[in-house]
Amino acid sequence: MGSQTSKIVMSILANQIDKRYQDLEKSSELFSGYDKRTKHLKKRISVNINQIQLKDKIINYFIIFSELRSLKKLNILEYDFTIDQKEIKKYLDDLDNERIKQYFLERILLFKKKLYRLSQNIITVKDLFYYSENAYKNKIPAIKDQIIDYHSLYKKILYLIGKIKNPVTKLTNIERINLTYLLKRKLDFLSPENISKIDQDVNSVNQRLIEKIKINREIFEHSMVRLNELENKIDNFKDSEKDSLNSSQSIEIEQITSDLLKVKSHAFDMDYILNDLTIIENKFDRFSSHINILRSRRSIIQGRGKAMIETLQEANQYIDDSNALPKINKNFYDNLLLNDRSINSASNALVNCKNDLIKYIKST
């Protein structure tokens, strides 16, 4: 009965060992002599099956089980490393800097060479796993974290450069050039050894960018208010003065209107709107101020002309020869044009009329 039970137990153990052996990877890229170790273990399994001494057979089974577990752990370690390599490659493929790619790939290669040398020098599989696992934990996570940090900062810089180019930021051309230059310099100097320092510098540039965007948006919004107010002022001016302006003045105010529409069509260009809006405002202010001065001068001349006409009419009542007095065309002052030439001509006519009247009085 006992002999039969032992055979059943041995059979179960043999099946378990065979199953575990079949689950092992047949080759390894990391560990030198892996295939020799598995073949040697297979031979020990076969020898142990024919072992006659039950005690020795059981002891060998436990030794074989231990080695199978260690080999399986090596398989798992190599699988984890393969996954890490794929993830690392994904980040590296997303970089344009070949020098940085080569730097990380060389570090991975050095690690693989270290494991290969360990597997050549260490005899037992258990010890090989122990030292390999320690080497893996000390190197690969650190390399992977560094790649992720580098990639993250690399993408952050590219994102900020793209953000600067976006017209929505309302940055001026010189601001875009300066900020882009700063970020590209940081990108050129970025390396695995200075990630923390470059990240601080990039955060500083980003803070400047945020502040400039805020300020420029406020300036832009204020400029749009100015633009709309100027547009309304020009429209109101044209409505109120449409019958007063001569052809030259009409052409001038239409040119100002055209320039304003041109600025409005480029409203997102901060360089354009800041400079040209101010120019148009000044041009319109000069034009409207000149028109107001002409209107005031015309009003004065018209008042003086009316007074002179009344004076001459009253004088005609006391003088027999009406032709002796100077003449003034009443309609000339009523329809006086709103320009320097007409007003100056009317002013000169009044002065001549006054002089002629004084001359006549003195002669009588």
Question: In brief, what are we looking at here?
Answer:
The chain has eleven helices and no strands. It is mainly α and 364 residues long. It has a domain at 2-132.
Secondary structure topology:
Blueprint: H1 2-23, H2 34-49, H3 54-93, H4 98-121, H5 125-165, H6 173-189, H7 195-241, H8 247-265, H9 270-316, H10 330-334, H11 340-363
Helix pairs in contact: 1-2, 1-3, 2-3, 3-5, 4-5, 5-6, 5-7, 6-7, 7-8, 7-9, 8-9, 9-11
Please bin the fraction of helical residues.
Answer: over 70%
Annotation field: number of helices: 11
Q: Using DSSP, what is the number of strands?
A: 0
Ends distance: 171 Å
Key attributes of the depicted protein:
11 helices, 364 residues, mainly alpha, 83% helix
Would you give an account of this structure?
This protein is mostly helical and 364 residues long. The chain has a domain of 131 residues. 83% of the residues lie in helices and 0% in strands. It has eleven helices and no strands. The chain is rod-shaped and about 170 Å long. The termini are far apart. 15% of the residues are buried.
